[in-house]
Amino acid sequence: MAVTEVGLSANWLLILGASLGALWVAYLSSARRYQSGETVAQSYDEWTNDGILEFYWGEHIHLGHYGDPAIAKDFRQAKADFVHEMVRWGSLDRMPVGTRVLDVGCGIGGSSRILAKDYGFEVTGITISPEQVRRAQRLTPEGLSAQFQVDDAMNLSFADGSFDVVWCIEAGPHMPDKAVFAKELLRVLKPGGVLVVADWNQRDDRTKPLNFWERPVMQQLLDQWSHPAFASIEGFAELLEATGLVDGLVVTADWTQATLPAWLESIGEGLRRPQGFLRLGLPGFIKSVREVPTILLMRLAFGAGLCRFGMFRAVRR
User: Fold this and answer.
1) What total of structural domains would you count in the chain?
2) Residue 224: CB partners within 8 Å, gap ≥ 6?
3) Rounded to 10 degrees, what is the CA torsion of 48, 49, 51, 54?
4) Taking the complete model, does pTM exceed 0.85, yes or no?
5) Domain boundaries, position 68
6) What is the pLDDT of residues 229-281, one digit of tens each?
7) Alpha helix stretches (DSSP H) within the chain
8) How far apart are CA 259 and CA 250, in angstroms?
């Protein structure tokens, strides 16, 4: 059964609880502030080795798609559904078997395996975390056209025009220079190739600056999960177009409502699977509980319009 969604218009208890939780996290443990790509790699190495993310989130370390309006569904199924919805939204289902895809920020390879198995694409997944690469390789059946390697999305090792599709889910917040990131994603695409990105974004503060409570909330969201900055949907689309590598305009969409249930569902997963606390031991229990305030803050931010879930599609000129 899905966790019941709570309306934010009158949800002062959630706001208070999330704020107190953020203070609790800051007090009890050091924040995982972004310092460099190495600190991002270290964070994901740790999350992969302790197994907590995989146990609770499965093979897809990203949000699920619940429809708009949202409907109740299995937490892991919603994540697989997200991949298929992204394929359809990006018109990648029209592409032939053998299409070469670069999965940027592939995690432990969940999306890469679906793209290879269900669509017949030849997928290369890259992540900055060596431990994620090793885990992705172990989870991938022999013969499946999905391979994985360590690489830096800010300085991809591939030649210009290497791929038919560049695919990226929720990696952008870890990138310190969004303009460089945008150019790298497009650089490795062939002319006529398609870029499809799904990402956490903040509200465009050029038109509506952050207010007194949004600023500390946003800072916690950056500091706790090794994020240097969030782009806005409008701002990142402008950066993609500013590269001069886009044919026409970037197409965008807002999937906030379709993905919003995933935040509380991720907490609900801990309640539905308490055996994880025994399996992961006391350190795993502490690490799991540590994430709850940040997840609540994410739910608050996306529900209140401070953050938005952005979709981007661009064709390489």
Assistant:
1) 1
2) 25, 31, 32, 294
3) 20
4) yes
5) 31-315
6) 999 999 999 999 999 999 999 999 999 999 999 999 999 988 888 777 677 77
7) 12-28, 37-50, 52-57, 75-89, 110-119, 130-139, 178-187, 214-224, 233-242, 256-259, 261-272, 275-304
8) 21
